[in-house]
Design brief:
Layout lengths: L1 E3 L3 H12 L5 E3 L3 H9 L3 E3 L2 H11 L3 E3 L6 H11 L5 E3 L5 H9 L9 E3 L20 E5 L6 H13 L3 E5 L1 H27 L4 H4 L2 H7 L6 H10 L1 H25 L3 H15 L16 H10 L16
Parallel strand pairs: 1-2, 1-4, 2-3, 4-5, 7-8
Antiparallel strand pairs: 6-7
The structure holds nicotinamide-adenine-dinucleotide (NAD).
GO biological process, one term: tyrosine biosynthetic process
GO molecular function, one term: NAD+ binding
InterPro entries: 6-PGluconate_DH-like_C_sf (IPR008927), NAD(P)-bd_dom_sf (IPR036291), PDH_C (IPR046825), PDH_N (IPR046826), Preph/Arog_dehydrog (IPR050812), Prephen_DH (IPR003099)
Length: 314
């Protein structure tokens, strides 16, 4: 497989895939990162066309691990040099990526992905072979998705010790707005609010650290994911602000924040006891397999080992 972009996610992927015994090579635009990857024993180049030509020769799975703003340019290179390779990505938004892949005429061999794992650090040195262990990895089941490419991408996630959540791109984006992009904006607001209060940083402990952890992420990455998911983030933001506005009014009028605190606590308890049944019965490639997997993913189901594929013995 060929990893394009050897930062936190691409670099972790390269380490995890190599650890699983896969042949993996990659591209990074910075000479320093390529030198660091080579020093660590990995097969890396700063020549994108060379990496993609090699991928085309081997029919390797190409994984795009660059931020959203860099994707159109990378997709143009893939179209020119390796248009027939199976293709996936790790981008935190899926609808906007799908639009770009369609524009680049690469949809038939593309299956979107999003490992739900990360840290606030960037670059090759931040990578960790164990980053995906136990994490959810969304593998898209949009209408166009090819069974063979889907199985390749799913196997990659399983090799990295993740569990696979099948989901449609639009549903992924609505969920990502709620559990990732909105928390990023709230964390920034919390950090700003505390930063304006004398003594606050001197007293800050666990609540502040946990509530603002993601505000330490590089601003470019936060902007890239929030702005690329504006369609789904705007209604989530509106709902979050509405809840806070109601709590503010209740506090001013009645002295109580009970409504928000009790419904928030109940929702968090539901999350803590959320079950993750294993998806085992779907045969990939049969009639309706994508809709079946999307429904199972929506219900909390996860794939922990490869599913049977129609026409593949064993
Ligand atoms: P990173 O900054 O660590 O790595 C980004 C990589 O992309 C670097 O190798 C950089 O050189 C390369 N790059 C950036 N712009 C480029 C350009 N114009 N041309 C060529 N290469 C370019 O970031 P990351 O956290 O690894 O993020 C990569 C992708 O993973 C993003 O799409 C992000 O949405 C996704 N993602 C991030 C996280 C997270 O927590 N950081 C989690 C899941 C998915």
């Amino acid at each position: 497989m060929c990893v394009v972009g050897l930062g936190l996610i691409g670099g972790s992927l390269m380490r995890a895939a190599a650890g699983a015994g896969r042949e993996v090579f990659g591209y990074n635009r910075s000479v320093e990162a390529v030198a660091a990857a080579k020093f660590d024993g990995f097969d890396a180049t700063e020549n994108l066309d060379e990496a993609l030509r090699r991928a085309a020769d081997l029919n390797a799975l190409i994984v795009l691990a660059v931020p959203m703003p860099a994707l159109p340019q990378m997709l143009d290179h893939v179209r020119q040099t390796a248009p027939l390779c199976p293709l996936t990505d790790v981008t935190s938004v899926k609808g906007a990526v799908l639009d770009e892949v369609r524009r680049a005429d690469l949809l038939p061999n593309f299956v979107g992905g999003h490992p739900m794992a990360g840290t606030a650090h960037s670059g090759w040195s931040a990578g960790d072979a164990a980053l995906f262990t136990g994490a959810a990895w969304v593998v898209s089941v949009d209408d166009h998705v090819d069974a063979r490419v889907w199985s390749l991408v799913t196997q990659l996630a399983l090799d990295c010790h993740a569990v696979v959540v099948p989901a449609r791109s639009d549903e992924h984006d609505a969920a990502a707005a709620a559990i990732s992009h909105l928390p990023h904006l709230f964390a920034e607001a919390l950090a700003v609010t505390a930063g304006e209060v004398p003594l606050a940083f001197a007293l800050a402990a666990g609540s502040f650290r946990d509530g603002t952890r993601v505000a330490a992420t590089a601003p470019d990455l936060v902007r890239a994911m929030c702005e690329a998911n504006a369609d789904q983030l705007l209604p989530a933001l509106e709902h979050g602000i509405e809840l806070l506005t109601r709590a503010k009014k209740a506090l001013a009028d009645t002295g109580s924040v009970a409504d928000l605190v009790e419904t928030g606590h109940a929702a968090r308890m539901r999350y803590d006891s959320f079950s993750r049944p294993e998806i085992m019965t779907t045969v990939v490639g049969t009639d309706n397999w994508r809709a079946e997997l999307a429904a199972a993913g929506r219900a909390g189901g996860v794939i922990r080992s490869a599913l049977p594929v129609l026409g593949n013995p064993g």
